Amino acid sequence: MTDPQPRPLSQMAPEELVALRDRQRSAHGDLVAEGLSLDVTRGKPSAAQLDLSDALLRLPSSTRDRSGTDVRNYGGLQGLAELREIFAELLGVQPDQLAAGGNSSLTMMRDCLVDLLLFGGVDSPRPWSQEESLTFVCPVPGYDRHFALLEELGIGMVTVPMTPDGPDAEAVAALVKDDPSIKGMWIVPTYANPTGSVCTQEVAARLAAMETAAPDFKIFWDNAYAVHHLTEDEAKSADILSLAAAAGNPHRPLTFASTSKITYAGAGVAFLGCSTDQVAWYLAHLGKGSIGPDKVNQLRHVELFGDAAGVRAHMARHREIIAPKFAEVDRVLSERLGGYEVASWNSPAGGYFVSLDVLPGTASRVVALAKEAGLALTPAGASFPYGQDPEDTNIRLAPTMPPVEEVTAAMETVATCVLLAAAEQLTKEN
Amino acid sequence: MTDPQPRPLSQMAPEELVALRDRQRSAHGDLVAEGLSLDVTRGKPSAAQLDLSDALLRLPSSTRDRSGTDVRNYGGLQGLAELREIFAELLGVQPDQLAAGGNSSLTMMRDCLVDLLLFGGVDSPRPWSQEESLTFVCPVPGYDRHFALLEELGIGMVTVPMTPDGPDAEAVAALVKDDPSIKGMWIVPTYANPTGSVCTQEVAARLAAMETAAPDFKIFWDNAYAVHHLTEDEAKSADILSLAAAAGNPHRPLTFASTSKITYAGAGVAFLGCSTDQVAWYLAHLGKGSIGPDKVNQLRHVELFGDAAGVRAHMARHREIIAPKFAEVDRVLSERLGGYEVASWNSPAGGYFVSLDVLPGTASRVVALAKEAGLALTPAGASFPYGQDPEDTNIRLAPTMPPVEEVTAAMETVATCVLLAAAEQLTKEN
């Protein structure tokens, strides 16, 4: 349903806009009548991706780890050394800077926040809960679960723009310099959710070294997509632990990763990487509520991969499955929306998302129109604290889960809804 | 090294005591020279017990749960319905009163305490952290990890005696009646750690119905050994959820269980059972830090057991392995200590522990002497808050892990050390 001669809506005469609106309204009506059932809301791996790890179902072949310990029994709070070695290499940290845990890095993030609230960190003058107020810097658009976690814990949020090179570091530095209530920040450094941004070495160095009024400022460095490349040009995550240590702030970063989008999304292994003092701090609190992680599952992963190269080879197979879906998003959106100047989106080199910016003020309407047409989109505003996108412009697209034909259909629907919402807005009587 | 004519030490003349002491000292010296290396410190399953569940290593055979959901992907925060059904039957609750989680019920207990502190419960006037002081009632002797958890979180502890029928309910009721700072209590209702006590229906009913000054009093009902029988006379856990609901206190109990000592100690599944309102409360907070439990491992357990009868049959095989070890503890202690009246111990009908009471004032000395002889015992006092046994009399024995020959050797050593420490104390110059 491509328009014969796409040109910017801002240059169209009122009658042209009305004609465009009516064509899109008709197209949308057709979609509604079709009764589609499509979903691009969450960054879930597809069944084909999960199949890549099905050897896990018959592993481990041994019940002892390298040290001879029976993995079926209690103990080993820090996680299997051999698994930590593999992921230390991939994450650019030392194995003793890494704890391997359960199936969720989000759980580790919440645990760290809770421990900071209740006990304070290794460099805190007091538990965070004793501060008058607490605020985190949140680059936007960002990850909705990060924001929900802060909201639950009563930690305020202040936003800074996400740039293609990572968070706007000068904006962060200006905020944290004089305000001791700003205790931390979120960042997805590599292939950010949802913008696909990769934090450069320079931005990371600035964040690692910047002056902070809070002596115990924490960078929550959620490296969820560290090895999740969509092209052969593989981004290397900045070495935030070394940068922070070199700047005299060794305890500033808490880094997180997991195999959720490497093996099984519900049955993988999560990692926390930080200074060894902070590993000890984390384990001391963890140990009050745990006698050790699921070492059987950790050994399963060791046997599946063998080594870091095994993980890289595994990720190349993921890329073969999902890169065509991202290409399809770009193809359809370019074909359908190119020339109208009502939307922009990124072509990420990795990660799980496409960040789509539509005509300001229309994102909620696009999501509503899509819903009518049987397409579930992430709620507008989800990429902002409290679900409030001040411009009502950003929509997160997650194309990995559906088969590629459904991605095509979903993006056709998105395009129609984006155009319709824009034309509606521009033809609204004032 | 049985004494020729055992009789109560309290009736021995000083020279008899000296002779006894010197004989035990010599026996102890022989043990030290032997260079044993024995450990009865922790309630860990033995390798033979873990072997019973090795079918798990090749399960699940399917990747879909009963509803057709792919267990390899995210989601399903409450845990697999079919697994909850099996354990609901075993624990005497409804499936919707149960959440199935990760590998540790201790983690669930800590999560509940943390959520009560930060947010308050469904029946709390305010978050617990906003109370001036917080205290839990702790039946003693009890489980050291319960006490350590409270200590970490700054929750005070007041003790009541553990009786063969469970906690001294009248003592609990007297404490909680007028003091609103007493917010909860611990109880291991079935085959308690370490006394083996089974909480009767009457005691449970009293605890469920007693008047509490705190409107949001919680019974942390750690049913770790619900199905861990050592005899054919299988204790039935009191139905605390129904009793509490009937008494108008439906939100009072938070019950916990796990498969840690049913399948694999590090790789099992944990359960929280409580009112459906509290399940919702728990999941709402859990969901901020988790996208779901390891459903693959939950399905693994469903396939291993099939149904509740499968679990019971499995537990009978555990009993065959460990009951002889408990019998051996009783045999050796009876043979070696009978008649001296310096020690008493229980013969549990289930669970993982024997609680040994030695001559008051000598428990620490017994543990130290055992250590010299190469036998690791749980530190004296471990079964009391802050590790302080006011009588220095209790020692927890955990005989499941070592092979039976080692249990024999360990108990021989214990007996020698108990006698030696008692004789030392009674021959001490005042």
TrEMBL record, chains A, B:
<keyword id="KW-0238">DNA-binding</keyword>
<dbReference type="InterPro" id="IPR015421">
    <property type="entry name" value="PyrdxlP-dep_Trfase_major"/>
</dbReference>
<dbReference type="Pfam" id="PF12897">
    <property type="entry name" value="Asp_aminotransf"/>
</dbReference>
<dbReference type="InterPro" id="IPR015424">
    <property type="entry name" value="PyrdxlP-dep_Trfase"/>
</dbReference>
<dbReference type="InterPro" id="IPR024551">
    <property type="entry name" value="AspAT_Ic"/>
</dbReference>
<dbReference type="GO" id="GO:0003677">
    <property type="term" value="F:DNA binding"/>
</dbReference>
<protein>
    <submittedName>
        <fullName>DNA-binding transcriptional MocR family regulator</fullName>
    </submittedName>
</protein>
<dbReference type="GO" id="GO:0004069">
    <property type="term" value="F:L-aspartate:2-oxoglutarate aminotransferase activity"/>
</dbReference>
<dbReference type="InterPro" id="IPR015422">
    <property type="entry name" value="PyrdxlP-dep_Trfase_small"/>
</dbReference>
